[in-house]
Amino acid sequence: MKEWLNKGEHWIWLSSAMVSISVVLVFGLMAMITYKGAVHFWPHAVYEFQVEQNGQTETVIGELRDSKSRDVTDMQTGEEKELTQSLIKVGNRDVYGIDFRWINNDTIKSSIETLSNDVLVIERYEYGSVFGHLVSAKIDGETVTDKSVLLELLEEQVGQSSETHEQIGYIEKHLIGAINYEIEELRFEEKKLRLDDAFTPEEEARLAAERAEFQSQFEAYQAETAVLYSKLNNFGEVTVEISNGQTLTVPIKKIVDFWRPNNMSFVDKLGFFGHSIGNFLFDDPREANTEGGIFPAMIGTITMVLLMTILVTPMGVIAAIYMREYAKDGPVLRTVRISINNLAGVPSIVFGIFGLGFFVYILGGSIDELFYGYALPNPTFGTPGLLWAALTMALLTLPVVIVSTEEGLSRIPRSLREGGLALGATKFETIMKIVLPMATPAIMTGLILAIARAAGEVAPLMLVGVVKLAPALPVDAIAPFVHLDRKFMHLGFHIYDVGFQSPNVEASQPLVYATSLLLVIIIVGLNLGAISIRNRLRERYKALD
């Protein structure tokens, strides 16, 4: 045993055990997030419970989402007993005021496996889902009660309503949004001309003509949306029987989708699963981000990470080249290296405060005074936005890129540098054409680590550009296409907001797992792209290693 310990083999086994435990924990976490996130999109079975409380029996229709057991003390006998409760998603928030309800299992008279046949689940634009049985529909002033045609009629009406909503959204967000942007640009142009004393009658006439043309287009689009809104009001309404014989009338214009989960086959459920994922990825959020999709947050996250990568790469590479190839070794260089290593350990919120104080208030305010004085007092770059968020994340990840690049440069043989100089190349040419290309795999390694950290950070972004709900995307079809001054949404902040700021925790919990899964997938996807590039570069310079 003593000989075995002296050889140090126990450290090898201990290291292997720790690595194995870490791998199991990582894959276990990923499996849990994947399961919880995927279940959010699967159609849940709806049950019908007969609950007896205070001598009265009531019917509860809903999805069985969770159950728990705990020991309680009987107030009458003083004995300990196990109490089992079930969490039921009852929906119908406008009727009950809550989406979820805990029910003691000893008060349930019917079997917990009793499915509610032909139950209809309606997803609405507001007030959450509706659980109930379809009773009738009122279309064009006529009431339809024949259940053999109700579903087909409802599917047709909801499809037309969704198309109308999409047309309204396209006109308001894209067409009218573009016109408002152009009108605002004309207003800024006029202010600029007045500040420069160049607002001549000719310029005034030109601006008035352009403004009148945009106003004419705006009124035309506004009239078109008025027609579409009136069309929405003509789609009628449906009546649904919910718990205890109550009826609820739902206007068709407020219905996003509907389905009958208990009547679906496995193939139908798979189709619903794919359709739900598509809506989640490409729809805008609703109901204070607790429902709907995460498209703006996804676009904001990817745009910020890519912009951060573009900014941090030259800064980190240039700093590493100077420290390795040009700077002389001494106390100053050692102090700089120590500072860089310490910078990697600074809390991220400190970077956010620095970004807010220096980038936003000082640098952004100076840019506004120099180039956007005509827009003041409304700030352009003197307020949190995409550019400052990307720069803050670039500073946050800069030490990783510098250390990784410098490590890669140190592995390049000195003979290659001397060979380049011997052939008549300058030191700069030798570095740019021989040394730096061979160090690109190490640079990509630093970028991989930078992307992984920047995509998951939340605290600094809350100070320098991320908001709960952004009115416009940072990337669109309007020049200059990437709007660096705009605020944006981020998946990390979306998870924080939905998971910890939502008043309806049970309803938002599945969305937290789904968004977390998407964030992990985006990080893995970006890293796989960087790893692929790194591997190709390694193969190219493999013979020279």
UniProtKB/TrEMBL annotation:
Lineage: Bacteria, Pseudomonadati, Pseudomonadota, Gammaproteobacteria, Thiotrichales
Intracellular or extracellular location(s): Cell inner membrane; Cell membrane
Residues of the ABC transmembrane type-1 domain: 298-530
PANTHER family, sorted: PHOSPHATE TRANSPORT SYSTEM PERMEASE PROTEIN PSTA, PHOSPHATE TRANSPORT SYSTEM PERMEASE PROTEIN PSTA-RELATED
PROSITE patterns recorded: ABC_TM1
Predominant location: membrane
Family stated for the protein in its record: Belongs to the binding-protein-dependent transport system permease family. CysTW subfamily.
Keyword check for Membrane: yes
UniProt keyword list: Cell membrane, Membrane, Transmembrane, Transmembrane helix, Transport
Membrane topology recorded in Swiss-Prot or TrEMBL: Multi-pass membrane protein
Protein name, UniProt field: Phosphate transport system permease protein PstA
TM annotation in the entry: 12-35, 294-322, 343-365, 385-405, 434-455, 511-533
